[in-house]
Amino acid sequence: MNNEGTMKSFMKGAVLLTIAGFIVKLLSAVYRVPFQNLVGDQGFYIYQQVYPFVAIFGIWTSYGFAVAISKLLADTGKQSHGAILRIAVTYVAVISIIVFVLLFFGAELLAGWMGDLQLSQLLKVGAFSVLLMAPLAVLKGYFQSRNDMAPVAYAQVVEQGLRVAVILIGAWIVVSSGFSLYAAGQMAMLGAVAGGLGAAILLLLYFRNHSASLKQPTTTVGAWSIVKEMTAISISVSMSSLILVLFQLVDSFTVFRLLEESGMGRLVAMEQKGIYDRGQPLVQFGILIATSLTLAIVPLVARTSKKNSGRPAEMYARLAFRVSFLFAFAAAVGLTFVMPYVNETLFQTREQSFALIIFSWQIVWMSLLLIMTAMLHGLGKVRVPALLLVSGLVVKIIGNWLLLPIWGVSGAAIAGNIGLMIVVIGLLFYFKKVWPLTFAPLSYYGWLFGAAMAMSAVVLGWSILADNYLFNNLSSRFGALLTTATTIPLGALVFMALIGKSRIITEKEWYIIPFGRKLAGLQLAINSKKKGEMR
Hints:
By secondary structure, the chain is mostly helical. The protein is built from 22 helices and no strands. It is found in: Cell membrane.
């Protein structure tokens, strides 16, 4: 009975974190669109150049360290919790201060390496957000160790909500008041500070009721061993979440500089980098399904792999892979044919749509990468995935230097795909070695590619008809909006109808995944209609 209660509590917490994670990722993808519309491609370039510096440390601490602290607390007796938390606070605080000093006092040096000294002020503002990471990481880890996910989930939503609000409202005020685009970028960096502060205050309010239990006498623990384990766990679990941001950091140091060195004018190079960065929200939106599955299903893999009863871990692993690949592949194929219209609808022009098509295929690699690294981590395998991710980063760096001078931003997009593809291939081979599991039968891939081909034909035909004949008398952007708004649902309907008929994912499996009930209902309706027609 106790085990059943624990599982119910775990599932409730997992669902809450899944919903919060989905909201956070959705906001992260969506806010960039109105921000780019407010500040233009040059303003978007300014923000995207500096964003990775703050994001990398934020992901490592508030996610990686939180998981590490949670694991350490869960694996030790309550008598040691006070000592572990004190060590964790001190350690993360020291790292935060070091990173703050490097970002704030090294801002001019880093901006010089990026080729734009005016970015230094943005780095200085963003540096203050890292000072909030110690309370965020430790408090999140504490609540997660107690399986009390509500404070963590609420803090994530509050943090992202405040951040987005400050970014958009601040950018609007700055631009409408006639200040420079760099001032708008500083306001955007201030959003990270506001979000972190709001989340820290909320977690501290929740923590007040728990602080008394930590004042009891505690046993001593080895500080050095705690620090070593915390570092190893935090880096390994956050690497898969960091990889896309690390790729952005590589782009921050290489794309603008290499474009300018290849003979492109300074302002044009800034705008090209800003246009290239339009791909980031598209990829983030495309991997929402994989992120949700990682949060919801992968913990079940970790738990069920240690049990002999109940649903087998293999079922969850196969389901996570198949659903993630299905939606990621559909998104990438669909964007290939509607990108010019999506590009203009969201970002005002159709410029560099081909480069963005290439960029959008990172959705497939990132989705598979997130699922496999998370499952391997659940099995306790972290070192090899981390090394593979580092190798992908090296390939991205080399690819940018070789391909950017030849193909411009398309070269950078190709380099990103190659880097992620190498990581995914390596993970597949390693997964087969660790856990010889067949993710899906050949019929799954056959139906998937067949559904994608049918969707492509319908999407291409309708988009050409809509763009050239139905909406060609309207303003260009409004016409693109209507083309996008009609083409995407039509393509999705065709794709899901064929997937539903194939039943390559059963109704019972749809029920397991987040928000899968409606898809299960749709699939039942499709197949019941088919049976009725046969009669």
